[in-house]
């Protein structure tokens, strides 16, 4: 859990600064490396350190994937998208217990839980960067290309003029936001955010 706590701060900041996609894959590759290292650890401290890094990268893999899922859909679909993402998290925990019933060697179990992650490396060629993140970084042209691609895939026509009108309010917000950089401490400045943050901290 120490690793998870550290990872949620480090990879959360990375995803905001460098992008969702890059952070997801940096986390995934790091998780694979240290997951394998944990399985072949020659002594206790190497195993402990490896597992702490794996815990940290869990935040990078799961939480960033969760954010990507929410940012790719509209407000009306976010509850469904968020619930589906958390379902995989819960199902994974249950499957871990099921695997442990039949794989009694801990090294084999560690490898069995780590190596399937290799499959997700192919996502690099399928998952685009978040359009919302691109807009937040004022990379409007890239966001427009991504939105046009999504519209074409969904057999919807959207003109450049319409897209400019839709994005204009967001662009103005981004310009104002750039004037003042936000920090983690900002969540404590407003009572509503502070209350929700403390509840989440206690829950975890």
TrEMBL record:
- According to the entry, every stretch annotated as the Major facilitator superfamily (MFS) profile domain falls at 1-204
Q: Where are the transmembrane segments?
A: 24-42, 48-68, 80-103, 109-127
- Which compartment or compartments is the protein found in? Membrane
Q: What is the membrane topology here?
A: Multi-pass membrane protein
The protein's predominant localisation is: membrane
One MF term in the entry's GO annotations: transmembrane transporter activity
Q: What is this protein called?
A: Major facilitator superfamily (MFS) profile domain-containing protein
Q: What is the protein's species of origin?
A: Callosobruchus maculatus
Please name the InterPro entries in this protein's record.
MFS_dom, MFS_sugar_transport-like, MFS_trans_sf
Record-linked SUPFAM superfamilies: MFS general substrate transporter (SSF103473)
Q: Which PANTHER family match?
A: SOLUTE CARRIER FAMILY 22 MEMBER (PTHR24064)
In terms of Pfam families, this protein maps to: Sugar_tr
| Residue runs in coiled coils | none
Gene3D superfamilies in the cross-refs: MFS general substrate transporter like domains
Keyword Ribosomal protein recorded: no
The source's domain of life comes to Eukaryota
Kindly state one GO CC term assigned in the UniProt record. membrane
């Amino acid at each position: 859990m120490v690793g998870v706590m550290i990872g949620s701060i480090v990879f959360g900041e990375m995803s905001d600064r460098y992008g969702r996609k890059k952070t997801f894959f940096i986390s995934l590759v790091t998780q694979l490396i240290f997951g394998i290292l944990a399985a072949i650890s020659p002594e206790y401290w190497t195993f402990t350190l490896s597992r702490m890094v794996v815990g940290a990268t869990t935040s990078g893999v799961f939480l960033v994937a969760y954010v990507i899922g929410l940012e790719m859909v509209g407000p009306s679909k976010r509850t469904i998208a968020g619930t589906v993402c958390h379902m995989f998290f819960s199902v994974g925990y249950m499957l871990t217990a099921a695997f442990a019933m039949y794989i009694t060697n801990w090294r084999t179990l560690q490898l069995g839980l780590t190596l399937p992650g290799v499959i997700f490396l192919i996502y690099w060629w399928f998952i685009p960067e978040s359009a919302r993140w691109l807009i937040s970084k004022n990379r409007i042209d890239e966001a427009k290309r991504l939105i046009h691609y999504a519209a074409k895939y969904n057999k919807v026509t959207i003109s450049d003029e319409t897209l400019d009108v839709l994005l204009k309010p967001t662009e103005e917000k981004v310009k104002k936001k750039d004037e003042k950089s936000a920090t983690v401490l900002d969540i404590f400045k407003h009572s509503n955010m502070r209350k929700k943050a403390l509840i989440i901290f206690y829950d975890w």
